[in-house]
Amino acid sequence: QVRLVESGGGLVQAGGSLRLSCVASGRTFSRYDMGWFRQAPGKERVFVAGINSSGSRTADSVKGRFTISRDNAKNTVYLQMNSLKPEDTAVYYCAANTVFHIPVPTTSKSYDYWGQGTQVTVSS
Fold this sequence. Notes:
Low-confidence stretches: none
Structural class: mainly beta
Largest sheet: 7 strands, mixed
Helix content: under 10%
Oligomer: single chain
Number of strands: 11
């Protein structure tokens, strides 16, 4: 069982930045696939970015603005979000998979563990 706790969401003006953090339980964090997904009201949950030891992937909608990274010593994955737009408004979820994949998965069904979500609201 892996527990994930997100933080860092909030209200920001368009063009601003936020950094989301997700702390995971477990002693083999470095082997986990880690992902960020988001869900806007009335829409499906979609992939934002993912990372594992083979590399990282970022959705086209956020490429060049969002960066995923991880600190294995702290069991933490980050999502740095720059140049935020109103359409980035959503609940952001951290996800983990303890089975290593190449390349890092981009579908929600590939992840077994989920955080509670953190709200990001971008005002225009």
